[in-house]
Amino acid sequence: MKRLLSFFICLGIIVLWSSCREDFEFSPSTGNLEFERDTVYLDTVFTDIGSSTYNLKVYNRSDDDIVIPTIQLENGISSFYRMNVDGTTGLEGAQEGKFFENVELLANDSLFIFIETTIDIETLSSSDTQFLYTDRILFDSGNNQQDVDLVTLVKDAVFIFADRDEDTNIIETLTFDVDGDGTPDETTLQGRFLENDELTFTNERPYVIYGYAGVGAGQTLTMEPGARVHFHADSGIIVTQGGSLNINGALSTNQEALENEVILEGDRLEPLFSDVPGQWGTIWLFNGSMDNTINYATIKNATIGVLSEGNQDATNDKLTITNSQIYNSSAFGILGRATSITAENLVINNSGQSSFAGTFGGKYNFTHCTIANYWNNSFRQFPSLLLNDFIVDENNTVFTNDLTEANFNNCIIYGNDNPEFLLEDEGAVFNYKFNNCLLRFDNTNLSGTGNYMFNDTMFYEGNFFNIDPDFEDPFENLMRIGQDSGANGIGSPDFIISTDILGETRTSPPDAGAYISTTFED
Description:
Blueprint: H1 2-20, E1 27-28, E2 34-35, E3 39-46, E4 54-60, E5 66-73, E6 81-85, E7 99-105, E8 109-117, E9 130-139, E10 146-155, E11 158-161, E12 173-176, E13 185-193, E14 200-201, E15 207-210, E16 212-215, E17 220-223, E18 228-231, E19 236-239, E20 244-248, E21 262-266, E22 280-285, E23 292-295, E24 297-300, E25 302-309, E26 319-329, E27 332-351, E28 356-367, E29 370-373, E30 385-388, E31 390-392, E32 398-400, E33 403-409, E34 412-415, E35 421-424, E36 433-435, E37 438-439, E38 460-461, E39 464-465, E40 471-473, E41 478-481
Parallel strand pairs: 1-5, 3-10, 11-15, 13-16, 14-17, 15-18, 16-19, 17-20, 18-21, 19-22, 20-23, 21-24, 22-25, 23-26, 24-26, 25-27, 26-27, 27-28, 27-29, 28-30, 28-33, 29-34, 30-35, 33-36, 34-37, 36-38, 37-39
Antiparallel strand pairs: 2-4, 4-8, 5-7, 5-9, 6-8, 9-10, 12-13, 31-32, 40-41
């Protein structure tokens, strides 16, 4: 009882003392603020595309509670930057996000300033294709004024987008013959068909695509060496019946800059987004599109790098892809459906499902390719390579289509899971063969796997299993092989391609995969 009485007496004293205490008294800032850094770099952005949000921490190291009379952007209401100070947007109207008054900061405490920008390069320069835009955050004024610099590199671009409403939502959709009956069909696919004067992508300025850029009958979209193509979320390229895509990159002398390759990726240029999968849709080669070629291209961070449908019996393969790289696809690197693909010196890695999936039959010939997958294997359902000859509809009805051929010559098919290739046969014709490849399969001695017929030379010849390919760093998409690679010298001269993906001459017997072996630098 005495303890309880003592508790209430103490509580009463505390309440009485706190009720008599005056509010915090804030002194004006004396120009002694400290900053996390003296310059905030907002990385590179495209004109008219908003940046990520960056932050700046401001410290009051003194023992006094202070008030900062003003925090503002030097360029005032004309600034392309906007700020949020500890959750507030400042004055209303034109000065919102630009001007803040009487910002309180407790002793030995800090506050956060969040900074974004959207810049119209046309108001900055009429001739340059990129511009360094700067401003300053000013704290207080007069003798107490302190500042932090803001710097952003702005790039001009060619923008390709469909009609949008007042909220910038795409409202135009593509209409084309979807079912092959000769009648155009309305789709829900947002985008528009390219005009004739838009069918050549050069290296003069980057291209930014909103929605799907369509290539129609009788059209060919050509991408010249060094072209850079960026896609907004849920965007891509669709090549419809009678159209063609020709990506004509060239070998680069600088493998860091890839100055001659055609690079296709998302439209977020900040380093944080450089390897984020699923930022855009796909390159969709629709049924009826023909003679599509991709040479020296890097396709990264898509949902599906390339989706190729139909035309498995075409005289010229529907898609020929050479000397190219496909990385960080959230679903598939290449997804084929009853289609025909020839690939040479191709590298695919890090896919949410399969790096290459040839589904519902088709015709595939891959030579000196590296098909790998080092995605987090806790989240993917399929191996690096998937081949099947069927689809299942919503009523669980199975439809089959012939896998007329699937040849993998001098290839590496590997990854961080087991097995790394899966063959699913439901129909009458399922023709495949692995020649002189390095393969990963879950059973080291290959016993008990009669359905894969590993001992039948009709399907397997000269292959090696479960030997480390000694990739440089597959988790970072560095897929060169080292001197200790299990792929070294196992290829067959019968399938040799004279140079590898880097233009290096192959010797006989060749190394399997897209690269010849090398010594890595520390």
